[in-house]
Amino acid sequence: DVVLTQSPLSLPVTVGQPASISCRSSQSLSHGDGGTFLHWFQQRPGQSPRRLIYMVSNRDSGVPDRFSGSGSGTDFTLKINRVEAEDVGVYYCMQTTHWPGTFGQGTKVEIK
Amino acid sequence: EVLLVDSGGGLVQPGGSLRLSCASSGFTFSDFWMTWVRQAPGKGLEWVASINPDGSVQFYVDSVRGRFTISRDNGEKSLFLQMHSLTIEDTADYFCAKGEWGDNWGQGTPVTVSS
Question: I need a surface site. Which of A6, A32, B61, B80 has the fewest CB within 10 A?
């Protein structure tokens, strides 16, 4: 199975400052059809996960534009331009290029 | 608005069985893959199983293959997860999700396997 390794696992951030989460894959996530199926999810405390970004860099409807995704091959990044208090939670990357789908361990974002 | 409502969780003894359900609305259920994901207490997310739109293709994570069965009723717009031979390691919140990529998620239903 593909292993996704996130870093850091804990990310204390000051409101208004940027934040960045890395997701590295044990295999290339580039599919034969040209797509790269790496997605990002946010899970706020006590809530279900919510997808923020699909296929590396496409923001889901209703997701603030301070969230952005980038990367290719085996290295991917989620960036929060200016962290707000409501961004507290755990962030997961997920790949669906290879079956079975797998998640990273999660990165806990908290406010300093 | 897409809505997914998970149900059927509960307390079950090791070796027991449970059937989870996910009722959907707000989208054309029969057009989409559907997925079950679980989260053990205090842990991360684990993809469990996915099923294609007409129900003819299913994929499972190794740890549940042969014990769990994912199915769907497109007429009722519902997704199911039949779980047999449950072990303590299956204790988790179970979420249904629209699509293979987790477009939208249910609220989750808790499964506790304990004697």
Answer: A32
Gap between the Cα atoms of B88 and B67, Å rounded: 14
Q: Is A106 on the interface with B (CB under 8 A)?
A: yes
pLDDT in tens, B63-103: 999 999 999 999 999 999 999 999 999 999 999 999 999 99
Instruction: Measure the CA–CA gap between A20 and A22, rounded to whole angstroms.
Output: 7
Place of tokens 């509960």: B10
A61 in contact with chain B, both atoms CB, cutoff 8 A: no
Rounded to the nearest 5°, which phi and psi values hold at B53?
-55, -40
Three-state SS annotation for chain B = CCEEEEECCEEECCCCCEEEEEEEECCCHHHCCEEEEEECCCCCEEEEEEECCCCCCEEECCCCECCEEEEEECCCCEEEEEECCCCHHHCEEEEEEECCCCCCECCCEEEEECC
Amino acid at B70: I
How many Å lie between the alpha carbon of A48 and the closest alpha carbon of chain B? 6
pLDDT digits (tens, 9 = 90+) for A54-78: 999 999 999 999 999 999 999 999 9
Nearest to B8 by CA among B82, B91, B72: B82
H or E element in which residue A43 lies: strand A38-43
Task: State the average pLDDT for chain A.
Answer: 97
B46 and chain A: CB distance < 8 Å anywhere? Answer: yes
Counting every residue, how long is chain B? Answer: 115
Query: Distance, in angstroms, between B115 CA and closest chain A CA?
Result: 26
Query: Of A92, A96, A102, which has the smallest distance from its Cβ to B101's Cβ?
Result: A96
